[in-house]
Design brief:
This protein has about 325 residues and is α/β, with parallel strands linked by helices. The chain contains eleven helices and 14 strands. The two termini are about 35 Å apart. The mean pLDDT is about 90.
Length: about 325
């Protein structure tokens, strides 16, 4: 059981395991989203990249293409904050895959990327005028990643290993990653990713968190789906029964954090309206985990997380521009 584990003070590296994906961002209407049949704020698995191509052909909106994937976004954020960062995933042996890898290197992230003959995975994020994003995901090469490829050696120097909840769709790969991370002695964090992921994995999720996870991160919808509780305080406490550190993000109102029994609330930051919520949770985790690894007080971890989450909501996509990072680093 993961309870009471302490970070090795000699380690600072944060490693992430997840899907190597390229994000395609589309600013579209409510009517367009409705025509796709997707639930707002959820994630749909596309059976092939042709599904994404078909949806794109129905839109005349401008497209933006950037490297993405939940855990990858978080690890890129750690690298941009100046922390040692490593991402482990699988890309296609194609132009998109090479673009993905080169982008990681440029952003201070060490890539450990296996290759596949399948195309590099893609995510179509449809962003509606209320700034909500709804996703269609074609995993492509990412789905070819094998449990035996995730070796303990990738985590030996890691203070913390961060896993995206989307890995719950590949139970064998998730368990191999958790066991390898646990064997290394690193702390383990899990972002629940999406309420649709939680719905699909409730059979195993509670036991996995209890057995392996030190830090669990959820938003309101994910926490409600996992715990069955609508009261935020009670939902946080239920999460805290499973992990030493439990986070409940409550959108623009901020977040609640339970850390070894102490609960703090971090309020909202800034008054700017969100342009796009893509990557908000991922970059929130960047700041929070960076703070934890660097021994910041828990309130400071929450404030840095909030700054990262706020800045990414001021742009389309999960890539914070240089001026945004300068404002964030001023918080340090």
């Amino acid at each position: 059981m993961a309870k009471g584990k302490k970070k090795d003070p000699r380690r600072k590296l944060i490693a992430g395991v997840g899907s190597a994906l390229v994000d395609i961002l589309l600013l579209e209407s409510e009517q367009f989203l409705s025509s796709t049949g997707a639930k707002k704020g959820g994630m749909v698995h596309a059976s092939s990249d042709a599904v994404i191509d078909d949806l794109l052909s129905q839109s005349t909106a401008k497209q933006s293409v950037v490297p993405g994937g939940s855990a990858c976004n978080t690890i890129v954020g750690v690298g941009r904050l100046g922390g040692p960062a490593r991402f482990i995933g699988k890309r296609g042996n194609d132009d998109l895959g090479r673009l993905f890898e080169s982008s990681l290197k440029k952003q201070n992230v060490e890539p450990v990327l296996f290759t596949s003959n399948s195309p590099t995975g893609r995510v179509l994020s449809i962003i509606t005028p209320d700034s909500q994003r709804s996703m269609f995901t074609y995993l492509g090469a990412a789905s070819d990643m094998k449990p035996e490829e995730v070796l303990p050696q990738y985590f030996e120097d890691a203070a913390l290993v961060h896993l995206e909840g989307y890995l719950l769709f590949n139970e064998a790969l998730l368990l191999a990653s958790l066991k390898a991370a646990q064997k290394s002695g690193a702390l383990i964090s899990l972002d629940l990713a999406s309420y649709t992921v939680v719905e699909a994995s409730k059979r195993i999720l509670g036991d996995i968190i209890q057995e392996y996870v030190d830090i669990v991160i959820a938003n309101e919808d994910e926490a409600r789906t996992f715990t069955g509780l609508t009261d935020e305080g009670k939902a946080l406490m239920r999460l805290a029964e499973k992990a030493d550190t439990a986070v409940l993000k409550i959108g623009k109102r901020g977040s609640y954090i339970s850390h070894f029994g102490k609960v703090v609330k971090v309020g909202r930051m800034g008054s700017g309206a969100a342009v796009d919520t893509t990557g908000a949770g991922d970059l929130w985790a960047s700041g929070f985990l960076y703070g934890l690894v660097n021994d910041y007080p828990i309130e400071a971890c929450g404030k840095l997380a909030l700054a990262c989450g706020y800045e990414v909501c001021q742009v389309v996509g999960a890539s914070i521009p240089e001026e945004g990072w300068r404002r964030i680093k001023a918080c340090l």
